[in-house]
Specification:
single chain; about 180 residues; alpha+beta; 2 domains; 3-stranded antiparallel β-sheet; two-stranded antiparallel sheet
Amino acid sequence: MAEVKVHLDDKEWKNFLDGLAIDSVKKRNIIRAVARVVAFKEVVQHFKDAKGPSGAWKQRASTTQDRYQKYGKGKTTRASRLKDGTQKEAGSPYAIPKGSTRAQWNPSNRLLQMTGALRKGFLQANMEDVDDGVVLFNPIEHASAHDEGNGVPKREFMWMSEAGVELAAKNALDLWTRNA
C-alpha cells in the first residue's frame, strides 16, 4: 500500500501573500510552520474523536469484536522447546499473533489504534515541499488502506476540517504580521 498524504494547497495563500512584500522563502516557511502546527494537530484530533469529514468512523464489525475477544483469551502463538528437548505446540486457533501482545487485541481499544503504530506514524517531520504547497504524510504501510477504505472499512484521518483551514489562515496571517 502507498503512504497516505494530506496536501495543503497554498494557491489561495500564495495569492494573498503575493500581494504582500514577502519573499518566497518566508512564504514557504510560513506555510511549513502552519502545516506543522495546524495540520498535525488536526490529524491527531481525528484519531481522538474517531471521526472523518462525514462523521464518526464506522464501528468494528461484531465478528471482529468477537475475534478480538477470542484473541484476548487465547494462548501464546509461539511454539517452544521444553527442558527435555521436546517441542511444545503453539496455542489455540485464536492465539495472539506473533509479535503482538494480548493488550493490543483488547476489543475496547480505540479504532485504528490497536498497536498505536498508525497514529505514531504521523509525525511533524513527515513533510514534503511541492510546487503548490506542502504535503504531510503517514509512511505506515497500511495507512492508505484505512484512510481510503481499500479492503477495510474507510476511516479517514488525513483531512483538514473547515475550522482547521480557518485556523491555518489565521496562523499564516499572524506569522506574516510578526515577520513583516
